[in-house]
TrEMBL record:
InterPro entries: PyrdxlP-dep_de-COase (IPR002129), PyrdxlP-dep_Trfase (IPR015424), PyrdxlP-dep_Trfase_major (IPR015421). Keywords: Decarboxylase, Lyase, Pyridoxal phosphate. This is Cysteine sulfinic acid decarboxylase. It comes from the Eukaryota. The modification N6-(pyridoxal phosphate)lysine is found at K310. Belongs to the group II decarboxylase family. Homodimer.
């Protein structure tokens, strides 16, 4: 339909309800066509990159005193879609999230249409019970007895890890809630050198201090070295520090390694430490009978971070913290705001769950995931996981046979695959003294060509003393083997000397 050119809100003529309806219908059609269907079509680009100055010049970012017309607003929407990265596109493999799940999208849109805030049952009755259901089922899948325990939806995995540290700290010394950091000795937390940076960040945020995060060596496959963990616990004790928590990782951010959870659980039990598992990335593997062995021992955890927006492809954001213990979230964080959490309401106020969060207003991130889960069933989630692991194995097996590709880890455990692409001119130069320096410059160069061309998106990084390497991430089960070959072919084309 034609969009009517009409000023939005002016004193002379406020738009009518009919104008608004027409505007919403028109915009919805554009969103569906340009962002959803065109944005996920293999024939179209993943991105149309512009440098910041170019983008500023081509896009009307500036805000003005006067209202824009509906026609101008439609044009802004189209520009927003055009210049944005299409993260649902099959060839967006840059981050630990991707895909555009149809049921997730509808759930996300419905969430925004209803615009709830999940702090009290009276405001969010459906979402409160949905959260209860989904979190219980996730705990059951983790292996907590009968799905018992507690949990919350969080704004991202970093925050979920922060909540875990806060709960561990409270369990160790409940006085911290009222007396603050003065009540604490020097607490020490242990995590692998390959763990997500949020562990350090949240330790600073919570007053533990990043110096008191002891980094444990990772082995050649990126997994926490448990002997070193035990040595470091001993070192902290001998220094007069007080070990209180180990944060293990199930699916490290770059390499995709799974720490040996059974052994780490043993160390935690021996020293009385809170055992947290950051399974933000790898948690999705728990729904697969074939792959859940990667997380053996997770059922012994005190807390687990698990982000359905990663391997399970729920729309951003959908992050959870799951706990084996009941009541500790509320004990650590409640402030009993009397204006919101009145105890003399006519219904069971234990359903006013908001006070166990540190946020007040909170999006209903549960709906999109619950709706996807309903649509696919747990068996559909399992098929999705099995498919992305199959695709990853096919990609690994293929690049092992292709000249120029070299894996960082020969047998990746998860669906993030790290590799170097070595252009023909460097292939016989490995013994040259400047080989690593030259290799270090290859990935940024290929990435620049990739971004400017816009046909796929894959990230790179250096890690420890390794030269820059690519990390391609597979979590879109709509991809086929032909897509794996597409990625490989594009690397070969962009990596030409
Ligand atoms: N937890 C955020 C991970 C970001 C990324 O590497 O894709």
């Amino acid at each position: 339909p034609q969009c009517v050119v009409r000023r939005t809100a002016t004193f002379e003529s406020l738009p009518s309800r009919r104008d608004h309806e027409e505007f919403i219908r028109h915009c919805t059609e554009i969103l569906l066509k340009e962002a959803v269907f065109d944005g996920t079509n293999r024939r179209n680009k993943v991105l149309n990159f512009r440098n910041p100055d170019e983008l500023r010049a081509q896009f009307q970012f500036e805000l003005e005193p006067n209202p824009s017309t509906h026609e101008e607003l439609v044009s802004l929407l189209k520009d927003t879609i055009y210049y944005s990265v299409k993260t649902g596109h099959p060839y967006f493999a840059n981050q630990l999230f991707s895909s555009l799940d149809p049921y997730g999208l509808v759930g996300q849109w419905l969430t925004d249409a209803l615009n709830p805030s999940v702090y009290t049952y009276e405001v969010s009755p459906v979402f409160t019970l949905m959260e209860e259901t989904v979190l219980r089922e996730m705990r059951r899948i983790v292996g907590f007895k009968d799905g018992k325990g507690d949990g919350i939806f969080c704004p991202g995995g970093s925050m979920a890890n922060g909540y875990a540290i806060s709960c561990a700290r409270y369990k160790f010394m409940p006085d911290v809630k009222t007396k603050g950091l003065h009540s604490l000795p020097r607490l020490v937390l242990f995590t692998s050198e390959d763990a997500h940076y949020s562990i350090k960040k949240m330790s600073s945020f919570l007053g533990i201090g990043s110096d008191n995060v002891y980094l444990i060596n990772a082995d050649s496959r990126g997994r926490m070295d448990v002997n070193h963990l035990e040595q470091e616990v001993g070192r902290a004790l001998s220094e007069g520090g007080v070990p209180f928590m180990v944060s293990a990782t199930a699916g490290t951010t770059v390499i995709g390694a799974f720490d040996p959870l059974e052994q780490i659980a043993g160390v935690c039990e021996k020293y009385g430490l809170w055992f947290h598992v950051d399974a933000a990335w790898g948690g999705g593997a728990l729904v697969s009978k074939r792959h859940r062995r990667l997380l053996a021992g997770i059922e012994r955890a005190d807390s687990v971070t698990w982000n359905p927006h990663k391997l399970l492809t729920a729309p951003q954001q959908c992050s959870t913290l799951l706990l084996r213990h009941e009541g500790i979230l509320s004990a650590s964080h409640s402030a009993n705001a009397a204006y919101l959490f009145q105890k003399d309401k006519f219904y069971d106020t234990t359903y006013d769950t908001g006070d166990k969060h540190v946020q007040c207003g909170r999006r209903a991130d549960v709906l999109k995931f619950w709706f996807m889960w309903k649509a696919k069933g747990t068996s559909g989630l399992e098929r999705h996981i099995d498919k992305v692991f199959e695709n990853s194995k096919f990609f690994v097996d293929t690049i092992k046979r292709r000249p120029g590709f070299e894996l960082v880890i020969e047998e990746p455990e998860c669906t993030n695959i790290c590799f170097w692409y070595i252009p023909p001119s460097l292939r016989d130069a490995k013994s040259h003294p400047d080989y690593r320096e030259k290799l270090h410059k290859i990935a940024p160069k290929i990435k620049e060509r990739m971004m400017k061309e816009g046909n796929m998106m894959v990230t790179y990084q250096a890690q420890k003393d390794l030269p820059n390497f690519f990390r391609i991430v597979f979590q879109n089960s709509g991809l086929e083997k032909t897509d794996m070959l597409y990625f490989i072919d594009v690397f070969e084309r962009l990596g030409k000397d």
